[in-house]
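User: Thanks for the earlier help. One more: Transcriptional regulator. Can you show the sequence and predicted structure together?

Assistant: Of course, both are below.
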Amino acid sequence: MKAIHNPALDLNLIKVFDALLETRNVSRAAEALGVSQSAVSHALGRLRTLVGDPLFVRTGNRMEPTPRAQRLAEPLRDLLVGAARALSAEEDFDPQREERNFTISTPDSMQAVLLTGILRDAAEGDLRVSVSLLSLDPDAMLNALDDGTLDLAIGYLPETRRWHDRQVLYHETHVCLFNPALVPVTPPIGLEDYTRYPHLMPSLRGGLTSFIDDELAALGTSRRVAASTTQFLAIPMILTQAPMLTSLPARLARLCADALGLATSPLPFDIGDYEVSMIWHRRNSGSPSHGWLRQRMSEEAAKL
């Protein structure tokens, strides 16, 4: 009990430690916490005295954690998450009686495939929840989870942070999509035809190369990428008028092929499949409303 009530033990010090660990910079940590740089420096001094370790050592423009700080990182983050969860705990959640807005970031390719069920429920008035959909790049997505502006991130997300929780929703692969009236090939498309026609490439970050080009290089060949776009759902509309190929997630490609009179084909090489997951900040793991959202996402994924 005396250790708990030790006047040197201040939860704000742990918040400063966590912010420095995340930003590696005093000024950015101060900005994240809404305090002055001198307040962060003073708190770091108190932490060093309390722990008996420098904790962070300046290396150029960065504050790098010492081995002791690295060992403290996870238990102190868990302490902060547990405190936030205890202080903001909901008793229960009834989506038909309680208003709640959820903010979800996922590529538009997955919005069309995965989120139509919950949006239909919201539109028909069965629920009092609303949903704000974003398409953030992976780094911005993780930052938004951390600062609380995002409830859920959905996508191919191999890199997360230690305080994020994850659940795999389904497995996906890619297929080739094209307009058979403009690209006269018969599925399954061969490697020669796949590399002969120009490609319209989806890219979350922009750029003109992807894992497809790595696979082709391993086979000793290449393709011509005529254009790329971050807007996956624009691609099928463009293909109705342009003699190009694209490689899209299979569920989206088949949905668009049925709607627009396009054709799909397996890729002429094996790329395997990948996991589509949802991730969230661990502070929300015990929230009934957040748990309801994750359950609905799981239910929709099970129907695919």
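User: Great, one quick takeaway?

Assistant: The radius of gyration is 24 Å.
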